[in-house]
TrEMBL record:
Residues 11-70 form the XdhC- CoxI domain. InterPro entries: MoCofactor_Util/Proc, NAD(P)-bd_dom_sf, Xanthine_DH_XdhC, XdhC_CoxI, XdhC_Rossmann_dom. This is Xanthine dehydrogenase accessory protein XdhC. Residues 106-251 form the XdhC Rossmann domain.
């Protein structure tokens, strides 16, 4: 796959990735300025020419991905010094680190409400997984970018496979399945949020069962039920679309978290020597 096809595919899938671009070169170098490659945590697409310097570029890109240091980073390579190559040239590589999807949303239940949530979420920068034990329903659903369907055959396994910081919604067709999911989910401290569809009486029944099963109040209180009541009132419109609209609106509030760092591009002092620009002409 070429680098530009990889960029399109990864951004549609919401996968974190790095675009590495050779921006300057001096002397003998494997490729010329304008060469690109794309790097993810487990794949690479296209090439900057190979050799130790390319391997070091890949390592630097993956370090930024693992540290979630999104934005622009400039890497300099002397092809004989840092890279251990014998070309004798010099290159600057610009790494553009993209976060991919802004949030992971796991929906357990592919019924009417779950399907409406998927439709309403389509334009948003979220990666969705849809889980259901009724595989015939999953097979009928139209696949969209950033949506993956999973058969719910083993609750423990499906929950264990969720990425950290996932926002989880439980709205299956079965109260027993809902309860089993809640009991597994509250044992994971690394999930962003846990929401359950249902009435106040349903949650009173569930929380009572969880207390009797020995779960702590701290774990039980992590569950948000009913979902979609973030505005402080109980909506009267209970159609699947209206419920989904409330839930997606609630998720927008939950996922609207300022980034850990503000990235506003490379500092000018880093760019001046790269492009041989005198300090007086760039501010």
């Amino acid at each position: 796959m070429t680098w530009h096809a990889a960029i399109d595919w990864l951004q549609r899938a919401g996968t974190p990735h790095v675009l590495a671009t050779q921006v300057t070169s001096a002397g003998s170098t494997p490729r010329e300025p304008g060469a690109h490659m794309v790097i993810t945590l487990d794949a690479i697409f296209d090439t900057l020419g190979g050799g130790t310097f390319e391997w070091q570029t890949i390592q630097a890109a993956r370090d930024y991905l693992q540290q979630q240091r999104y934005g622009f980073h400039l890497e300099a390579f002397s092809l004989g010094g840092r890279s251990g190559q014998c070309c004798g040239g010099f290159v600057n590589i610009l790494l553009e680190v993209f976060p991919g999807a802004e949030a992971n949303i796991a929906i357990f239940g592919a019924g009417h409400v779950g399907q409406e949530i998927v439709k309403l979420s389509a334009p948003l920068p979220w990666r969705l997984t849809l889980h259901d034990s009724r595989t015939e329903i999953l097979s009928e659903l139209h696949q969209q970018p950033r949506l993956t369907c999973h058969a719910l055959r083993d609750v423990s396994r499906n929950v264990a496979q969720l990425p950290p910081h996932t926002h989880v919604l439980i709205l299956t067709h079965s109260h027993d399945e809902d309860y089993a999911l809640i009991a597994e989910l509250i044992q994971r401290d690394d999930l962003a949020s846990i929401g359950l569809i249902g009435s106040d009486s349903k949650w009173a029944s569930f929380s009572g069962r969880l207390i009797r099963a020995g779960y702590t109040a701290e774990k039980i209180q992590r569950v948000r039920c009913p979902i979609g009541r973030h505005l402080g009132h109980k909506p009267s419109n209970k159609t699947p679309y209206a419920i989904a609209l409330s839930v997606v609106s609630e998720l927008l509030c939950l996922t609207d978290i300022p980034p850990a760092q503000e990235t506003r591009g490379l500092p000018s002092q880093a760019l001046r020597p790269v492009f041989n620009v005198p300090p007086t002409t760039m501010s």
